[in-house]
């Protein structure tokens, strides 16, 4: 696997030298992380990508004429603390796509982000789904809700302030519905206002074998309405989500507490947040509440605060803190961009460099 990774990186690196329209980019992020409140007790560690997942990527565009262009992205996740690929057995696990773009929009095939996740990152969450204050603490931003393989996507141009994104992922199993996922988003931008409505649906049926019967589940649905408004001296954020169905809201770390919680199949989440320039950096804060509408009534509330101090346009130091109050045995954990967390309290002290 290491030799294969080196060969591919060398080939893509050669392409970057041969063609000026290929860009190498990435993020190097590492932090000291502390967690408490779970069955593991006090946990102290060094983590890669607490604010933004560490990565190296290659993207390119070729102009084919007549308003037609081809594009690609190959993006690998890495662990700064160990130097390993962040998902065993993969190379370009974060993004791997190729597509065509015209005046009517772009179509891409491959492993890609879902419209649901990009709405959380770009519209709903002042933390951008990173740091200890991440929306991942109570919103189901994990697994295939973030990105899916075998996906076909469409992104429209902005027309009159409106844009549309569509996503369909083939399950590629003997039972065609198993593993299938689809979703989309509609956005509206007007001056300082940005509003986006996103939807995601996934099928988690299990295909039968010669020795085991097939398992059918209802489809898990996530519907997210998010908005932010930039007042320049402060940017305000708000989001509301409804989750229904099997695996609609899986727990980030189901074994975090001594008594295992039950994942909700009917819940709603609310987020209010802000970001503001402060000194030579940016202050971020949010409060969230999850209403579990099942018979278990496992509600949760959380808050988070963070500060990113800019050493330059590319490099920053950060500190963040998050806390969750779980009710009736709820099992939510303070996460960060790359880890699910081990308890209901956490902090990050780190450095982030983008290139």
From TrEMBL:
Porin domain mapped to chain residues: 5-328
Keywords: Cell outer membrane, Ion transport, Membrane, Porin, Signal, Transmembrane, Transmembrane beta strand, Transport
Major site of localization recorded for this protein: membrane
Entry keyword annotation includes Lipid metabolism: no
Mode of membrane association: Multi-pass membrane protein
Keyword Cytoplasm: no
Pfam families to which the protein is assigned, alphabetical: Porin_4
Record's subcellular location: Cell outer membrane
Signal sequence coordinates: 1-18
Quaternary organization: Homotrimer.
Stated name of the protein: Porin
Taxonomic source organism: Massilia terrae
